[in-house]
Structure formats: structure tokens, C-alpha cells
């Protein structure tokens, strides 16, 4: 599970930072999931080592332009790039209406299926390996955060030990790998968990932007391996944050602390903290680390691998 930042600026792009977009790479599924799609995201794909042909799901937090203006361009380019599978898009009310308007007025025709899902708090997607949960944030328009939760996996199955116990290969191995009980023809009962190593605990990634500090973000981020949280303003500009319903560096750190996450990554920075200004982004990082030491600062094309944990139970 690898995160690649394709845009880390707020509001408008700068020379070194594009507007919001984060890609989640799922190697075992050969899939990419995208979170927000600011203007120019398709260019950011081209500058990265990500394959747009693997894009399968897009999750939109809210309807502000710096999070959606790249959506139509990216979708249109995907069709021109060759054979594409269906892309599912998840987002707030009006997203479907917005896309339909873009399609109608630009006379764009996709060569692959596109399905839009209007989200509500709760589980919005689930398969055998992952669950995606949506939670409300607090912004000027309806906004949602997302949590991708990988499901736990059984530990490595000990084939040699199974063979030494006289268990024939085949369907029984599948049951044992899942930790189930089986009964052999001679009456012996074997518990699959005894033939598997420690459980591989599912990893979790949480994305919260745009929002001021809110309990919704804390609830969504509980015990997450990685929390990516907006940090538009420095602490001394808190009044701007309250006026515009954005977060300061210290608010992001407070969410991470309250939710007991393992790692906080700041993003969505105001251009006002560019090099040469009185306050710079390093100051925001220092402010956040004073509250939550396990904090880092994202930049465009930064990749972060979420490591797998092994259960002690």
C-alpha cells in the first residue's frame, strides 16, 4: 500500500506544488485509487511512474475547484490512452450533475464505463481485501474524509507441517489457510490457525481535507497507520483558518494525537508560506511536531509506503 502525492498546494498551484491529488497504489490488485483530482492532475501522472491505465476508483472530498477541476481532463485522457476498465467515482452530492454538465457542454464521450456514487457517512465500498469508509468533515460546502482499511490476512501457511501431519493437498489447504477447523478421514480435527504464522494486520490510510478541526476527522482516523491531513495555515494565522474553515498545522496535529495515529503527513499548504516569506513551511512542520512528533510534510511526487504490521496474538 503506497501513497504518492500528486498535488500538495491549496487553492492554486505554485511552481513546485500542484493542487490536491493523492494516488494510492495497490500492487496486489494492480490498481490505482485517486483521492481528489485538482487541475493538472493528468500532467502529474505523466511526471510520475504511475500508470493511469491502472486507475479504477476516484474519491472526491468536496466540490471546490482545486479538488475537481482536473477530473474531466483526466477521464477524457484515460479514454484516449487505450483500453480502460470501468472507473468508479465517489463523492458528494452535485458531483454527478457537475460531470454530466461537463460531458454535455464539451461533447466528451468516454470509451469506457464511468459510474458515479454519491457518498454518505459509512462504508461506501468493500471487497475481499479492502473497506472504504466515508466520514463528514467541516468545511464551507459538504466535505468528506475517507479511510481505506485493509482487511487482516492469515499468516503464512506452513505447507511442510501440513504434509507431515498427513493432510492431503487440495481444498482442505484452502480452509486451513483461512484459519478454519477441518476433520480428516481418520477423525482427527485440525485447527488451521495452528498451521499459520502470525496474522498480518490490515493497514489503514485516512485522508482529511478540506476541514477545520472536527470530531469527524478524529473518529475517521482512529489508530490509522497514516493520516494525511490538510495544513493550510500556520498557527498564528488561526483566525484565517476559522474564517475559511481550514486547518492550521496545530489542528492537524491535534487530530493525529486524539486519534492515536502512527504517522501524520501534512499537505494542502497555502502559497503564503513560500520561501522568502516571514513564515515558511518548515515553521508549520515545527508547530505540528511540538504536538505530534511523528509528523512529516508532503511534497509533490513524494511516495510513502505503509508498512505491514504483524500481530502478536
From TrEMBL:
It comes from the Bacteria. Zn(2+) 2 binds at residues 66-67, 210, 268. Zn(2+) 1 binds at residues 62, 64, 139, 210. Transmembrane segments: none annotated. It holds the Pfam family Anti-Pycsar_Apyc1. InterPro entries: RibonucZ/Hydroxyglut_hydro, RNase_Z/BN. It catalyses: Endonucleolytic cleavage of RNA, removing extra 3' nucleotides from tRNA precursor, generating 3' termini of tRNAs. A 3'-hydroxy group is left at the tRNA terminus and a 5'-phosphoryl group is left at the trailer molecule. Its cofactor is Zn(2+). The keyword Thylakoid does not apply. The active site is at 66 (proton acceptor). Its EC number is 3.1.26.11. Binds 2 Zn(2+) ions. CDD domains: RNaseZ_ZiPD-like_MBL-fold (cd07717). Keywords: Endonuclease, Hydrolase, Metal-binding, Nuclease, tRNA processing, Zinc. GO terms for molecular function: 3'-tRNA processing endoribonuclease activity; identical protein binding; zinc ion binding. Gene3D superfamilies: Ribonuclease Z/Hydroxyacylglutathione hydrolase-like (3.60.15.10). The keyword Metal-binding applies. Belongs to the RNase Z family. Homodimer. Zinc phosphodiesterase, which displays some tRNA 3'-processing endonuclease activity. Probably involved in tRNA maturation, by removing a 3'-trailer from precursor tRNA. This is Ribonuclease Z.
Amino acid at each position: 500500500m503506497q501513497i504518492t502525492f500528486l498535488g500538495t498546494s491549496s487553492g492554486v498551484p505554485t511552481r513546485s506544488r500542484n493542487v490536491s491529488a493523492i494516488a494510492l497504489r495497490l500492487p496486489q490488485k494492480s490498481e490505482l485509487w485517486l483521492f481528489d483530482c485538482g487541475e493538472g492532475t493528468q500532467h502529474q501522472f505523466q511526471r510520475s511512474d504511475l500508470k493511469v491505465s491502472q486507475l479504477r476508483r476516484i474519491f472526491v472530498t468536496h466540490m471546490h475547484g482545486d479538488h475537481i477541476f482536473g477530473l474531466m481532463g483526466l477521464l477524457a485522457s484515460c479514454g484516449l490512452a487505450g483500453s480502460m476498465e470501468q472507473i468508479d467515482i465517489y463523492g458528494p452530492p452535485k458531483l454527478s450533475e457537475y460531470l454530466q454538465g461537463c460531458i454535455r457542454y464539451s461533447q466528451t464521450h468516454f470509451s469506457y464505463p464511468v459510474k458515479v456514487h454519491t457518498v454518505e457517512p459509512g462504508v461506501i465500498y468493500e471487497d475481499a481485501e479492502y473497506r472504504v469508509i466515508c466520514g463528514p468533515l467541516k468545511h464551507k460546502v459538504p466535505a468528506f474524509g475517507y479511510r481505506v482499511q485493509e482487511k487482516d490476512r492469515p499468516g503464512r501457511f506452513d505447507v511442510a507441517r501440513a504434509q507431515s501431519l498427513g493432510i492431503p493437498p487440495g481444498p482442505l489447504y484452502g480452509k486451513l489457510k483461512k484459519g478454519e477447523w477441518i476433520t480428516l478421514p481418520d477423525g482427527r480435527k485440525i485447527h488451521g490457525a495452528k498451521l499459520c504464522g502470525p496474522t498480518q494486520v490490515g493497514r489503514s490510510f485516512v485522508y482529511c481535507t478540506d476541514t477545520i478541526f472536527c470530531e469527524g476527522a478524529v473518529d475517521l482516523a482512529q489508530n490509522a497507520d497514516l493520516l494525511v491531513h490538510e495544513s493550510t495555515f500556520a498557527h498564528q494565522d488561526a483566525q484565517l483558518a476559522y474564517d475559511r474553515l481550514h486547518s492550521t498545522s496545530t489542528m492537524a496535529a491535534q487530530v493525529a494525537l486524539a486519534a492515536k495515529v502512527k504517522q501524520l503527513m501534512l499537505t494542502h499548504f497555502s502559497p503564503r508560506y513560500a520561501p522568502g516569506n516571514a513564515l515558511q513551511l518548515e515553521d508549520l512542520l515545527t508547530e505540528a511536531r511540538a504536538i505530534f512528533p511523528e509528523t512529516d510534510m508532503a511534497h509533490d511526487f513524494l511516495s510513502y509506503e505503509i508498512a505491514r504490521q504483524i500481530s502478536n496474538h
